[in-house]
Structure formats: structure tokens, C-alpha cells
Amino acid sequence: MTVRDLSISLTRPRRVLSVLVFAAVLIWIDTTILGIALERIADPRTGLGATPGQLQWAVGSYALLFATALFAAGALGDRYGHRTILVLGLLVFGAASIWAAWAGGATGLILARGLMGLGGAMMMPTSMAIIGATFPPERRAGAIAIWAASSGVGVALGPLLGGVLVDHFWWGSVFLVNLPVVALALIGIALAVPNPKLAQRRRPDPIGLLLSTAGLAALAYGLIEAGQDTDWTRWTVWGPVAAGLALLTLFTVFEWRTPEPSFDPRLFRSFRFSAGNLALAALFFAITGQMFYGNFYLQGARGMSALDTGFAFLPGALGVAAGSVLGARLAKRFGIAWVSGAGLLVVAAAFLANLAFDVDTPLVWFCLVGLVSGTAMGLTIAPTSAAVIAALPLDRMGAGSAVNNTLRQVGSVLGIALLGTVLTTSYRDRIAPALAALPDAARDAAAPSAEHTRAVADALHRPDLTQAANDAFIAAMHVTAASAALVAFLGGVLLIVAFSRRAKGRPDAAGPRREVVEAVPLGSGGRTGG
Questions:
Q1: How would residue 525 be classed by pLDDT, with cut points 50, 70 and 90?
Q2: The pTM is what?
Q3: How far is CA 304 from each of CA 163, 298, 310, rounded to the nearest angstrom?
Q4: Sign of CA dihedral 54, 56, 59, 62
């Protein structure tokens, strides 16, 4: 039975959509909820005493596995049924959440987070494919828009739920919130969701999966290791970076020569497709880095509770939701270049505004900058995603959607690796003079991060050392924010250049948006369509 036959015969599609939206909230909650717990996890008194590098991996391993497993998940869904892979993804996500909650060390947490990313990757393309099989073309665009709106709900709920749990329980409780969602989603899937397959099954791509995963992991490892060694000449730094770049180059060559690649580099022949995806990767690069240092700024330097931190991030999350709705309308009227491109430039300006933040800056300014930045992000993400897919022929839109989702996750991986390393290196350079007079053991214990420095300061009853840690962190945060602003600015300029010109006589506005959204679901796992 084909997907089209199933779409005609299915009943109660709203019930199917409700279940899929409920399950998708898991993915988006988990992209933000961990950030609230990072301060506790880093503290050697209340958490695992994780180093900045270990925290970078705890965040980055999720995005790494998510990015590299998307194609394989879509192909497995075509072969074995998308509901089957969706259920398996939920089970993996739930089991990994239990592991993460009671991880006895940073290594266990990193591995559990990577497994959660794998589960999330199995859920996204399969959900899109089920929506495509359930809804007729005239209703499919609206269904996908509702499903996509779950991201705003999850991003907003993550910090608030995390704040409540961390303040009242322990840091691992932020992962246990996933379990009731998984249980209810599994029940709903069993009762309402079909199991569509493609009549023409894609062949798996194990070599491509291995090369891409190993390449990204090696590159991220080298960048994170640079933050720990603060010496780019060490082979433990440049060796993994060089190996990662070589593996990714080999991956690109391999996929180029494969008749049915999971990641099709030929799509980048389109300048608009390339520029739009690079701009989105730059945005997610900057966003992930800001979320990393933002939590440490509020909870560490300012001493805010986890719940108050969640509320401080709420204006930004609401801004993303509002900007996404507004951006779609404005882009149709004024075009991508002057809506999304300008939006990305506003994001860069908001990052530069972080340079004015200090430990005693009124919190209202942080919330206002977050609102402006979040709204600008919403103006950028949804219209640009639709426009880059519209730049491709109809039979390549499915593959283009998969590439688009993957590059955003790759941007997140590199953002946490590189910007996290900038933050760590800058902090160590600035705190070193204050630690010089300490005994060797105390200096080594205080050096890794501001959390470690504050712990040593408390043990030695040295409030001056606590102040030095806060001052050094604020200075390091400013360097990191400026770096993120530069990347976002370059992405905005690229977007304006690419979409200010007319492509093959077609206007700049995100014209065939409905056609784009309807073409994405069934190929979202990466099928190239010939």
C-alpha cells in the first residue's frame, strides 16, 4: 500500500496531529531545559563538578547525534514504517532520560545526552512523514504549521520547568519530566497513529552516517579541547580538528559520487539554497553559544535562582513565537532579504548589547534585549527555511528539507564547541592573575571555571576571589557575545545579498510557501527524488 492510499483511507487526522504535536514537545523542551541545570552540574558542591569542556559535550552531544542521525531515521522509516521508528525513538529518548537523571559522572551524562539526541532524530522526520500521509494536500500546510508551533511551546516551557525542578529537587530531575510525556505519547500513538511506508524504499547509507558522525565529533572534540589546553599547537587540539575536517571532506566527496546520497551536496549549486542554509547555521551557532553563557551569567555571576532564570529567558522564547508568525506574513509582502536578513542583523545587534551587561545591570534590560532578539530570530528562521526550499526544483525539496534541518544542528554543535571554548579560554586568561598567589592545589581546583573558582573562594573564605571570578566571567562573556554577534552579522549580510536579487525572474518574497511545506514531509528524511 502506498502513502497516497493511506492518506485517503485514514480517519480522524486531528487526533493523529494532536499525538504528534504532544510527542514533538519533548524535542524542543530538551533543547533548553538542560541549560537551567548547567550551573548546578558544574558546581562541585551541588552537582558533578563538571568542567566547561564536559558541559560543552553534555550540550553538544545531543545536537551532534541529532544532526547526523536524521537521514538514517528517515530511511529506516521508509523501510520499516514511520510509526515503528517513531515509537523506537520515544523509547530511546525515555531510557536515555532515566540514565541522564541518575548519571554518576559527567561522562555518563554526555553519553545519555547523545542517546537522547539519537531518539529525537528518530522522531522528527517520521512525524513529518506521518503528517504527510495523514492529511490531504489542501490541509497539509496547516497541519505542519501546527506541528512546527510545538517548538515555541517547548522552548518556552523548558526553562520554566527546569527552574521549578532544579530549585525544588536536584539537577537530574530536569530529565524525568520527559517520562510522562513519553508514556502518554506511546499510548496515543498506539491508539491513533498509522504506520506508513514508502513503496520505493531508500537504501541505507552506513558509510555516510559513519563519516559524518566521526567527522563532526572529531572537529567538536578538537575545538573543545582547545578550551581546556589553551594551546592550539598541541596535537590533542590540532590533530582532532584536522582529522574532523578530513573526514567531513571525505564524506562530502562520497555523497557527491553516490547515486542516492542521504546528504546531497549537489543541492548547494543553488546560491540561494547555500546562502540561506549557511545563514541559518550561523544563527543557530550564535544562539547556542548565547544560551550556554547566559545561564552562567544569570545563575552564577548574578546569583539568581533557577526558576528566576527561567522567567528571565521567557521574553526571548515568546519573541521567537511571535516573530515566527509575523515573519511569515512580512516575508510574503516585503521579501526574505529585508525581513529575515534584517532580522539576523538585529540578532547581531542584540548580541552586541550583551557587552553592556554587568552583575548589577537591571534585569529588565536583559529581558528587553531577549525579547527583541527572540522576535528577530522568529523573523529569520521560518521564512528563510521556506525560502531556501523554494529555491530548489520540486523533486529536490524533500532532500533540501533534510539538509536544512541537519545544518541547523551542525551550527548548534559548532556553536557550543567554538563559542564555549572562547568563553573558557577568555575566563582562564582573566582569572589567572587572581589565582597566582594561591597554593598549587587550590589554584588547580579554581582554574577550570567560575563555578570552581567560587567554590574554592567559599572554602577559603575569600569574597575578593568570588568578585574576581565574577569580573573575569563578565569580561569573558563580552568576548563571547562579540564573537557570536560577528557570526550572526555575516549571516545576515549573506542572506541579504542572496535574496535581494531576483532568481530566474521569480520575486524575492517567499512565494510558493504552501507548495514548499506540502512537498517537505515525505522526503524529510533525505530522499533526493532522482
A1: very low
A2: 0.76
A3: 11, 6, 10
A4: negative
